[in-house]
Specification:
single chain, 114 residues, alpha+beta, Endonuclease I-creI, three-stranded antiparallel β-sheet, two-stranded antiparallel ribbon, 35% helix, 31% strand
């Protein structure tokens, strides 16, 4: 019992003097090791490298676009981390949606940014 009280006291004192460090981001480091990065305003983007996403057989265009974005973000997060997988931060976005016999589908691409 005495040991745990002493250990807690030491830990408390140590934490009081520990430097404040921001939480680490979810970045795998692969983007910087595989591609050239380019600062664009307040963002850092992959320079000239695009990721794509797609959907098919969806009930309406809005849902098809959302599914394609989810596809884009999922692969981007897998490869580079979730910091890079935000469609709203992506650069050079393009989307092509069409309606077929089985429903709506979209193909999208963009350069990941964080």
């Amino acid at each position: 019992m005495r040991f745990s009280v002493v250990a807690c006291a030491i830990l408390s004192v140590g934490l009081a003097f520990a430097p404040v460090v921001p939480a680490s981001a979810d970045d795998t480091g692969m983007a910087a090791s595989l591609h050239t990065l380019k600062r664009e305003g307040k963002k850092v983007c992959l320079d000239g490298h695009f990721h794509s996403g797609s959907s098919a057989g969806v009930k309406d265009k809005k849902a098809a676009l959302a599914e394609a974005i989810k596809s884009w973000a999922g692969f981007t997060a897998f490869e580079y981390g979730t910091d890079w997988a935000n469609w709203s931060k992506a650069a050079n976005k393009s989307a092509n949606c069409s309606q077929g016999a089985s429903g709506w589908g979209c193909s999208i691409e963009a350069r990941p940014c964080k």
